[in-house]
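INFO batch 0412 | record 1 of 1 | parsing
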Amino acid sequence: MTRNKRFEQRLENIPAAIWSKLVQIDELKGRWIAGAQLNPQVLGRLKRSVLVTSTGASTRIEGAHLSDEDVEKLVRGLSLQRFLNRDKQEVKGYYELLENVFDSWRHIGFSESVIKHFHKELLKYACKDELHRGEYKKKENTVKMVNADGKPIATLFETTPAYLTLKV
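INFO prediction complete | emitting tokens
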């Protein structure tokens, strides 16, 4: 019996539920390929939307208070504004880093120095983080939820303890 014949026999024994899933995957693949061929303006708007949403969500995890709408307004006039408060500083660094990775991912290697560089770029506008930009963690921290007065009301998650990070 040839290899092709055995393969065909195995295909005949696949349950209908599995075939249904395979068809759904194939349809999704087709939509994904079609989406990649979108008009450049549409892809540009989609990219911007992803960058804004990701920036807003990620910086809110760290305690920033800017909504996605605030982030969008901020990045629309990025080069014209001064970033005086920490929320805006973090948003600018995060957005720029994410945009650079989005545009250059094919050419970016993965190494310790790249990760440290990303950290440095992420925090380049954050005055408070000047001493540890691009370096391993040196002190403990937690991510807390704060009330309107800025007082902590709950711990959202515990970060990796500083003693578990590499010391250089």
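INFO post-check: The chain has two domains: 39-135, 138-168.
INFO record closed
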